[in-house]
Structure of DNA mismatch repair protein MutS:
Amino acid sequence: MQQYNQIKGKYPGALLLFRVGDFYETFGDDAVKAAGILGIVLTKRANGSASHIELAGFPHHSLETYLPKLVRAGQRVAICDQLEDPKTTKTIVKRGVTELVTPGVAVSDNILQQKSNNYLASLYFEKNSIGIALIDISTGEFITAQGNPDYIDKLLQGFSPNEIIFPKSRNHDFRERFGDRYYTYMLDEWPYSGDYAQESLLKHFGVKSLKGFGIDKLNLGIVAAGVALHYLNETEHRNLQHVSAISRIEEDRHLWLDRFSIRNLELVGSANENALTLVDVLDHTCSPMGARLLRRWIVMPLKELKPINDRLDVVEYLIGHDELREDLQQHIRQIGDLERLISKIGLQKANPREVCQLKRSLKAIETIKVLADGSENAPLKTIGNQLNACAFISDKIEKELSEEPPAMIVKGGVIADGVNEELDRLRKIAYGGKGYLLEIQKREAEITGIPSLKVAFNNVFGYYLEVTHAHRDKVPTDWIRKQTLVNAERYITPELKEYEEQILGAEEKIFALETRLYNDLLYSLTEYIKPIQLNAQLIARLDVLLNFASISIKNYYVKPQINDGRVIDIKGGRHPVIEKNLPPGEDYITNDVFLDSDSQQIIIITGPNMAGKSALLRQTGLIVLMAQMGCFVPAKEASIGLVDKIFTRVGASDNLSSGESTFMVEMNETASILNNLSDRSLILLDEIGRGTSTYDGISIAWAIAEYLHNHPNYKAKTLFATHYHELNELSNSFNRIKNFNVTVKEVGHQIIFLRKLVPGGSEHSFGIHVAKLAGMPSKVLSRANEILKKLENERTGGESIKESMKKVQKQALQLQMFSIDDPILVKIRDTLNNLDVNTLTPVEAMMKLDEIQRMLKS
């Protein structure tokens, strides 16, 4: 255990998988953890002077099965392998950690999510700014930025890193800013040096300056990036030639979505388990790298006209060319995950089948290039021009690898015949031995004149020539007699002995030679990492645009008109997610939304619960976002003046772990909006102020609307949904505030939600009707109706709610028939009150009684 303890001491925070023969073993606390997570047997063994030590293990070939389970359970896993062949040493086998796998540092397909990046985020804090670097070693992507905590929070929400590293001294700052939402690991302070980080980056990229990457002014980002490389080195990931560049996250090119908006609009995730999100609706990509790029585009829409319109033009062209679109998608499906495949080659971890997949990918790219080049759309032709089929690589792979190689080199048959003469010779010996032996037998029989000569084998002295006693005198003098039998004698020859040594070691030599030749092939492919990575990026981009075209046809989306104006004009808009959840045969109720800076900057939307106010807000935000992604939108028409920020305050949530109530969270989010708005912002506010008293809520909501209208610099376009009907009065005082309501139809004592946005305010919330739909007990509903009517009657006299409630409380809570405001009972009561018993005949009395009885039965 001394060797184990020494290695474990270097990785105290990791679960150590210790290779012993054909097994990976875990000991002590690691064994207890592993047994619990993996469901494997936990045993005990003697441990010298100690009484015992826990032990749990699994076969080495099951690593890809068990490793993902450990990492997904949040474990850092150090893989300790045997670094020499046990046959070559008489002492303890040399061992060492060959890889430290963490949630943010993994390349195994069984750990990675196919449609999501696996980012490691590195943070560096300095005063009120933070540097961030994001690296995904499974794709080679490396990006950096810096900014205030809100901006970094937005990036973390958008990129969703699987692991975040930061200095130990900043633990409190991190928790205060970002909470406990992420898997984190803290490092010592010393790597967080500007000079050390700069030197690490320059050395890694082999350059003298970072200016070429456009990050030379990002001092905090450089430190974060340097520490990311340092961490990868510490986790035994030093072969990072596929991480060939670093780029700056260009904040000024992208529409601002804070983390609240990413959450509230349910772009890539939802607080409700199994809920449909925007990415679920939009993602019909043909490749994993296309799916990952789509997620990026969703959380980082553009805010520059030309690139948006270039995307829209490509989508429009592809919609109009069905055959081209379908051919391109068919060939993209053949490519697979080229981005991660070339990264594996860079890491020297690609298996033979994956290298063959690279060949097929490049051949598919060759066809895609021809199709794109032949199109009449300029952006599409540009993609075609930039694609490089790398024919030399596919030809080299085809020549050197077997057509259908095994996944593992140890099984042999990886290198094609004719590549290496020695390999061909060894294969002939190992796998064509019978023919070779027959050749020897035939030749020696002809030379000696012994027709009954035969070659055979036994475990005692290997291959031999057997001669009957009748032909003993014909045996050559250089044959060595090994055994005499009753009827024959057995001999060996130098040629047979040499062949025996060759055939017995041939398979081992074949494995060693194939391994060397395969590794040489992998190394030669690393020279082409950059062009293949560019291919992967271009194919991902093309895949997303093809996807936009396909879903636009399927979902009846239209091309939005994007311009530099200040108007949002949506006609017949639909919510892209909700319309997919409707029951079969039910159509989504479309709505028009018009916002500008001159006449209708703010729309106050009133209407009952469940009428569709929140859906309308989200729908508007999603249509704008989709348009600026370069996607067609769910509407009849849409003209969008560029939006640079989308803010949302939608839905109720709390942060009780940090001592923040629902109302406090609401106020934090609203304050963030008001402090960061711009002239091109789109603001979506839902039920501001509902988490406090009525008067406080109305006052806050009123003041916010007034602030947005009267802002000296910005006329942010705003949809403001509320239950406070008092806010309808704002339109009388502020010319750019307009009242709208989401309509309902009242039929008897029931309401029908029409979900149509129409001009004018609403005076009724129909809350008790909604409570009835929710299954509230009838006694509660009846009492609520009674209290509501009394409050409304009292308040007509100008009394406050508090004074009205005092009067209601003084009245006894009687649930008797004649004091209940149940509609049927009220009708019966009115009928009885209107009867004149003095003039009623017995027959008429019986008829009235029968009528009342039928009312009750109905």
Q: What stands out?
A: Residues 494-525 form the longest helix (32 residues). Residues 92 and 406 are 33 Å apart (CA to CA). The two ends are 83 Å apart (CA to CA). The chain is about 45% helix and 20% strand.
